């Protein structure tokens, strides 16, 4: 190949010829540049002399195969320099009469680009996993654990802690931790400005302590604990959400740490995800609290309306609470859900809300009503519907106020519903309402004895009352009598017979 050396001398690609005795017979300037060795240190020497230990590498095995089998070989090789730097070369090895010819192309930039792409994809998968954890749960602890797990795995550190900032106490309280050997590290909180995490939170900047042995000790983690953990490096990032400090993320490493900008950038990205999780978790807690406050306000208002009705109609005082309690017992026996029980309770409390539209002369009359007065009195379920239906929150509770005077045989009012056209809650309530009303004193009559009321309900079963509702009622009052005898509380839970619950 001597006649062609002048052609190869000026190529950007490295060109070298290695003899059968492994001595360099020719190298161009590019090879000298690739290997960081002058041509004079290579020519005439064996590659083992130029690069001690190369005979134990993959690249030497490929060179030997090409030399022995006289077959072309291609490979990519990562070359390590004495100073620790590395470079990637694409090698094309071909047999020639003198031995082998090696064309080397520097592909370091391409490999670094590929590695960076892989690193970015790796990190995107990590962030995606965190996003799914945050969006897939309302449990803040689970979301923060996911952030910490990804931080430890992706950043290749040993332990990590997330602190929550309490603006009232100005403390950073431990919310979640991972990777610690000691139980002491977990519950330790920090004052704002204390320790590397407190300092990062106070100054709102990332702080890296690459080697604790060479740094001024930071407060916040006892020296004995650090020794037990074997911590040699610390790093902390403030957690900021919507411009507000919400906590801090602290990383612990058991070897000295020399993070590059990409590592720090990803750490800060993870911190952003942690801050998002905290903000979403707190927003959900606030929403739950607001919903609870609103529900309590609604129920307090409903109870107030119910009490106002009792104050207006003295003869039914205490009736509303009694029938509400018993109707809930029947509803549980009928296997109604907790969500349905909420509406049953509200409907029972407001069952006579329509009587607000009945004149006092009729509502408070101390004698039996005339036929004309009954026409007015029977409008109260319709008045209840007109009053409550515009209120979206109370619309699901309308079954009892609107339908509790309907009868199983279709002869009730105001719509003449029949059988299972009547909502289940209203069918249950009807039995309870009549039971309590007949046993109570009225200005125009004395309350009936219990046995007489039982006979009436039996007689009206299948006429006024749903037979299944009556069966549940007998079961309920039997259980309650048994509880009174035993001195215990609570209602039994029995599977109901089937039947429609809606009008």
Describe this structure in words.
With 503 residues, the chain is of the alpha+beta class. It has three domains: 2-106, Beta-Lactamase (2-Layer Sandwich), CATH 3.30.450; 112-285, GAF domain (Beta-Lactamase, 2-Layer Sandwich); 313-486, Hypothetical protein af1432. It is 47% helix and 15% strand. The chain is built from 18 helices and eleven strands. It has helices at 5-8, 29-35, 47-50, 58-69, 108-135, 140-155, 195-203, 223-229, 261-312, 319-333, 338-349, 360-363, 371-377, 380-388, 399-403, 424-439, 450-460, 467-486; strands at 14-19, 24-27, 73-80, 86-96, 99-106, 159-166, 171-178, 190-191, 207-209, 233-241, 244-253. The strands form two sheets. Strands 8-7-6-11-10-9 form a six-stranded antiparallel β-sheet. A five-stranded antiparallel β-sheet has the order 2-1-5-4-3, with helices on both faces. Strand 1 (14-19) and strand 2 form a beta hairpin. Helix 10 (319-333) packs antiparallel against helix 11 (338-349). It is elongated and about 130 Å long. Mean pLDDT is 82; it is low at 482-503.
